[in-house]
Amino acid sequence: MVASATQLNTPGIKLGARDDVHALTDVTGFGLLGHLLEICRGSNVAATLHWDAIPLFDGVEALVREGYVTGASGRNWTGYSEAVTLDNDLPAFAGTILTDPQTSGGLLVACAPESVDAVLRIFRDEGFAQARVIGECRAGSPHVGVRLRP
Question: I need a surface site. Which of 70, 89, 90, 103 has the fewest CB within 10 A?
């Protein structure tokens, strides 16, 4: 966790210069759901996250199940839950993790589908081997849905 939290988001420089990258943000205080929702609102699109594709630190699930959660996670959910749908088959702790504020979160990138490989290559070249596709955006009212699988 320390290595991840202290790794600088260096891919952002190269990603921000690409025409096929439509949105780019660091995931911090509003959690993954909140930052994705801001992208959706700013771009007037809807998004779907695939829970099984979202990387988690080892032990996070156990910590959340034991009650180690932030107060801000609940406040984040209250602030934007009207624009989020969590499928019923998700683990009970999924919403807590997805709204958890991050001090030094990773980068969230929305790009053209045909540029996914190039974007992932930039991440890999900058030392972010865990980077992956975790969902997709589509035309629609600003909203985020979370499914167990694609």
Answer: 103
